[in-house]
Specification:
It is built from 17 helices and 18 strands. By secondary structure, the chain is of the alpha/beta class.
């Protein structure tokens, strides 16, 4: 992306997304490519993946550790908290049927956008699930996209209205539907409570579902699928999701003892599922949707309580704690107000400039223009903002994401055969 905005971001230590072969988007494209489904409309597969790791693969397993950024993985491995993953990393260093690829996630660096990208092989600009909180014109409300319901309450989904067909809101097809159309199969391993949730129903309805009630059972579901191979000789994709590392990083911080303990549990689960499996016809890709930056809850910026800012906005604030989406007809006045009140704190991006630079990906930007807001106010360092109160509560996290710091954007892709 040779672009003035990109160079300005890099000069300030930010990390733009890589959609051209070195990012999370390209993990999804690699799944399609290895299983013989990728076509000319798709992004490229991972450019750095060693050919020997993909040759002859009949199954692809993507294990997504929510919130496990590259910096966190390195620190946890060095501290001895993840011995199984460390053994694969050592194999990668020896080029012993394993490889570590340093990649980037999508932008914004957040779960709603990243998981939809994995499920569709499309960028946020194309699929429209751009952030955790988005202003949806369809409902005239800030929406919590993972639940697909009103952002200011903890309960309720737009699916609760039986007159609404969720398929009408899906902007792009899923990788699962495309696999099935070509004779392949796919399975999703997630907490059972996600089975009927919006994201699964919108973007993974065509996949088999192997739910688990406790995180420890994720490894059982994965091991059973790989041993039983219910897909027979057909090409198959298995997606397994672990949420705990992200959850504890938000509450306790990405350098906390709680974070290390959760990572150790995840490592043990991987070991139980995969350690006894010698190299075979299954390509395993361990990755993350984003990393975490430490944020000081005592330095939280109360944007949602800033009445002067609110008077300059057309819609309520949306986006992420590290990236506020500001819908306004007075963009210059918004930036001037925030700079005056919080000098040197925000990095401002104009919506059209960000779209032109490709930060949100490719394709028709019509949906993105509706959902992003004219001004994006991004935070770095240890700062986060309160942008939406949910049931009147302000979240005071010690770990945050959504922005473009190296800690948030850089993710590992650890590949090996099993």
């Amino acid at each position: 992306m040779p672009n003035a905005l990109i160079e300005s971001l890099r000069a300030r230590g930010f990390v733009p997304p890589d959609y051209d072969g070195g990012g999370l988007l390209n993990v999804a494209a690699t799944v399609l490519d290895v299983l013989g489904v990728r076509d000319e409309t798709d992004p490229p597969p991972l450019r750095a993946l060693e050919p020997s790791l993909r040759e002859g693969a009949r199954q692809v397993v993507v294990v997504l550790a929510d919130g496990l950024g590259s910096a966190q993985l390195r620190a946890l491995s060095a501290a001895g908290d993840m011995p199984f993953v460390s053994s694969i990393l050592e194999r990668a260093r020896r080029h012993d049927q394993a490889q570590l690829i340093e990649a980037t996630t999508i932008f914004p660096s957040t779960t709603a956008a990243a998981i939809t990208t994995l499920n569709t092989a499309r960028t946020p600009q194309e699929h429209g699930n751009i952030a955790y909180f988005i202003w949806l014109e369809e409902f005239s409300a800030v929406t919590q996209m993972l639940r697909w319901g009103p952002g200011v309450t903890r309960r309720g989904s737009y699916f609760d209205d039986q007159r609404i067909d969720p398929r009408e809101y899906v902007k792009v097809p899923s990788v699962h539907a495309r696999l099935r159309q070509r004779g392949g199969q796919s399975w999703v391993i997630e907490p059972e409570i996600f089975h009927k949730e919006a994201m699964t129903r919108m973007h993974a309805a065509e996949a088999g579902y192997a739910g688990y009630y406790l995180p420890s059972s994720m490894s059982v579901r994965l091991r059973d699928l790989l041993e039983q191979r219910p897909w027979g000789d057909a090409p198959a994709y298995v997606y397994a999701y672990w949420s705990g590392i992200d959850a504890v990083a938000h509450v306790s911080g990405p350098q906390s003892a709680e974070h290390a303990t959760e990572a150790a549990l995840f490592d043990k689960a991987l070991e139980r599922a995969l350690a006894s499996r010698p190299p075979g016809d299954t390509l395993v890709l361990l990755t993350a949707d984003h990393g975490h930056a430490f944020t000081d809850p005592d330095k939280l910026i109360d944007l949602v309580g800033d009445e002067q800012l609110r008077s300059l906005l057309r819609n309520p604030i949306a986006g992420e704690p590290r990236l506020a989406f500001l819908h306004t007809d007075q963009p210059d006045r918004v930036k001037q107000h925030l700079e005056r009140r919080y000098p040197g704190t925000f990095f401002f991006l104009d919506r059209e400039e960000a779209i032109a630079a490709g930060l949100f990906g490719r394709g028709d930007p019509g949906i993105a223009r509706q959902r992003i807001g004219e001004v994006l106010a991004m935070l770095g360092g240890d700062r986060a903002a309160s942008i939406v109160k949910v049931d009147g509560q302000t979240f005071r996290h010690r770990g945050s994401h959504g922005g473009m710091s190296p800690e948030e954007m850089r993710i590992p892709i650890l590949a090996w055969r099993a």
